[in-house]
Amino acid sequence: MRGLIGLAAATLASFFVQSVADPTVARPGGVDDIIITEDNILNSTTVTGFKASAARAGALPISVVNNFDGGMYMYVTGRDSSGAPCLLGANGQFVYPQADGTGVPKEIVANVALPLNAKGQTTRITLPQALISARIWFARGQLKFYTVRDGNGVSAIVEPSAANPSDPSAGIQWGFIEFNYDGTTIYANISFVDFVGIPLGMGLTLASGEQQVVKGLQAGAVNNICNAVKDQTRADGQIWDRLCTVSSSGQALRVLAPNLYVSANPGQFSGYYDNYVNQVWNKYTSQDLIINTQTGSGNVACRVSNNQLSCTGDNRAYPKPSTADIWGCNSGPFAIISSDNGVHRAVVPRLCAAFTRTTLLLAGGNVQPSLGESSYYTVNPTSHYSRIVHKYETNGIGYAFSYDDVNPDGQNAAGVVAGANPTLLKVTVGGWS
Questions:
Q1: pLDDT digits (tens, 9 = 90+) for 22-57
Q2: CATH number for 280
Q3: Which of 36, 68, 198, 415 could pair with 175 in a Cys bridge, judged by C-beta atoms 3.0 to 4.6 Å apart?
């Protein structure tokens, strides 16, 4: 959702050196321990066709129900209608941090930590106008945000990094919802594509009276998910338990998605899907894999030839994906480039979703997507992270990987609320209520 540009991603591998397959321990550091990647920097960008007019820049009321004990804080980050990165200040106006020229991240000291009211109570804020690439953060303690000049010399916001166990905010449990609000229309989701943290739920009310609800993670889900990935390690010997990040006292803080863990630890989980990929390639050498594009292109037939999968009407073929390609759905055969046609853009998410959920060799798996959620993650190898996250979501709803919105027509596992003329965005922290 971010589409971030600017500073190049730095490797985090040195921060994950472990001699045994145990949970990762957070050891918060200082400014020198910050690692800036495309995942935790919010740059300035040009927003084509988005600039809000006075008629479109409607304020958005947000209410937050706190189901945790005291010490809870909220932060709002995003880009305004001009594309400039900003935070919401305690005075209800956007704050635009300015970096110095040193190249060293500078802590943002403006009053942007918005305290939540006591357990069981509601806190209300108002987003004054349009905000895109936005997040509402919730934390059990105060997070540290920084500013630094990006590669274009413009001030950017450096956000807490879930992947870096030495990040200054690493010892705090947090989570966020993501949204785009153009002044009249909102699109918001609860995303666990990168990690699981604070249990969050949300509801949207539109001026039409329509109400949408995504209840999100169950209370206590982070502890349960950490325990479940440890159980999976005992079951198959893979390093699922390293996805869990704990405090120095052993308290579960968050669980990283395998794509985030692997991006920081190149080579981990290497070869996990290889045998499965080979079986898929063998099967679809002699029969068609049908991709339902769920667009005007309809069903397209795909077949393996010369060790690549080619689809009718597609401008490019697909080489075999690696495990890292499957975890991230945005590299190797799943990378989308500007020249790709509509068929290719439709096949990529459906093909990667099928690999992630391990449905390509099941009965009926020759048509994607066609099998319902009861068939997802039922055979190995599979994304046990996604399986476990959905288990501890209320109704199984909420993104657990980037293409979790790929489902047979009429089904939804993505955890999205959206609509025009919103009158209230409600968020619950610590379990739906």
A1: 889 999 999 999 999 888 999 887 555 554 444 445
A2: 3.30.920.50
A3: 198
